[in-house]
Design a protein that fits this description.
There is one protein chain. By secondary structure, the protein is an alpha+beta fold. It has 2 domains: 235 residues, 3-Layer(bba) Sandwich (FAD/NAD(P)-binding domain), CATH 3.50.50; 146 residues, D-Amino Acid Oxidase, subunit A, domain 2 (D-Amino Acid Oxidase, Chain A, domain 2). 30% of the residues lie in helices and 25% in strands. The chain is built from 9 helices and 20 strands. A hairpin with a 4-residue loop joins strand 11 and strand 12.
Length: 388
């Protein structure tokens, strides 16, 4: 397959911005391509047209509910990006003519047995220690907020600022917005990235700058990423309420169930996304019987009525994990930028990531909070285990 660079070369004569090739068509790659083209750069997006982790994602925008001791820098990154989401969504709708998929109903963290309630208490105490308060409520108050919660739920944390987005609606809007500002899509599989060049099996694409945003596959594209990115498998179920069943929760419900994290994210027309398992098993994307069973058992503990729902889809995606659960954002070498390693936070961090990469493309300083995610930071010996 031949990939001519004539279009980008011609565009450089009328644009002061660098020509850009973005490798990766998930939420991160699409957001960068749209924002870079909107900023004036000629942009190509290389997308092998494979189902990405973004297509499978639950779409939680929940840095507070997902906070974890020792990951304060990730919390700050997530909170900074969440603050950008309302404007990002409004601009996306204006640019695409499509809904953004943003849901503003909030999040409820639920706890059932004693150990799970203790986990909620520890989360609330940790958040208070870093200056972020949540409202503790009992089981009755939780069921007043969400009548579909079962009697096993004895405690909750109300987090109205943690939002969600319908991932597939957002992806459609991002693709349309990118198309509308002139992004050119190339359906091929990138094999290697070098400064200003993307190599394919029988051809190459050249531009001023290449951005690696290929999710879990990014590690194979550049020597500096070898061993820095690993695939983390996650299975997700899509359900739909039948006419005889209670409607799903109106807000995201998540929580520990016997130590296993589960989330239930509502969609329009009675839809509900249930996720997610988490395994370090390489590039395996098979959905397993055990994974479906574990998700349903945990979800039914919180919302028993989903046993009557229709099972619409079971799928698995590969999150791009790093040693410290922080993404890699910035320059790998002159002519090569990276934006990957977002793990389960791709949608959450998309606005901030796009802003940081577009700043780097134009020589501006990225937001200070992004410094924690510089690609050259030290790698811990042995790494930090991914958490569920």
């Amino acid at each position: 397959m031949s990939h001519s660079s004539t279009g980008l070369a011609a565009a450089r004569h009328v644009s002061a911005r660098p020509s850009v090739t973005v490798v990766g068509g998930g939420v991160i790659g699409l957001a960068i391509a749209w924002c870079a083209a909107r900023d004036g750069s000629p942009v190509r997006l290389v997308d092998a047209e494979e189902p990405a982790a973004s297509w499978v994602a639950g779409g939680m925008l929940a840095p507070i509910a997902e906070a974890w001791p020792g990951e304060e820098e990730l919390l700050e990154l997530g909170a900074a990006s969440l603050a950008r989401w309302p404007d990002f969504a409004a601009e996306l709708t204006a640019a695409s003519g499509l809904p953004s998929g943003l849901r503003t109903e909030g999040t409820l963290v639920a706890g059932a047995d004693g150990a799970d309630r203790a986990d909620l208490d520890r989360l609330a105490e940790h958040l208070a220690s870093v200056g972020r308060e949540v409202s503790r409520i009992d089981g009755r108050a939780a069921r007043r907020l969400e009548p579909s919660l079962g009697p096993a739920v004895r405690r909750g944390l109300e987090v109205p600022g943690d939002l969600a987005v319908d991932n597939r609606i957002a992806l459609a809007a991002l693709r349309a917005a990118a198309t509308n500002v002139g992004v050119e899509f190339v359906a091929d599989r990138a094999l290697r990235v070098r400064p200003g060049e993307v190599d394919f099996a029988d051809s190459a694409l050249r531009s001023d700058i290449v951005v690696i945003a290929a999710g879990a596959h990014s590690g194979a594209l550049h020597p500096a990423l070898d061993g820095r990115i690993r695939p983390v498998k996650g299975e997700v179920l899509r359900l739909r309420a039948r006419g005889s069943a209670l409607p799903p929760p109106s807000r995201t419900v998540r929580g520990p169930v016997h130590g296993r994290q589960v989330y239930l994210v509502p969609r329009d027309e009675g839809g509900l996304v249930v996720g997610a398992t988490q395994y370090d098993v390489g590039f395996d994307t098979d959905v397993t019987v055990g994974g479906v069973r574990d998700l349903m058992n945990a979800a039914e503990r919180l919302v028993p009525g989903i046993a009557e729902y229709q099972l619409v889809e079971a799928d698995a995606g590969l999150r791009p994990g790093t040693h410290d659960n922080l993404p890699l954002l910035g320059e790998l070498e002159p002519g090569v930028l990276v934006a990957t390693g977002h793990h389960r936070n791709g949608f959450l961090l998309a606005p901030l990531t796009a802003e940081a990469i577009v700043a780097a493309l134009s020589g501006r300083e990225p937001p200070p909070v992004v410094r924690a995610a510089v690609p050259g930071r030290a790698v811990e010996t042995g790494g930090r285990p991914c958490r569920s």
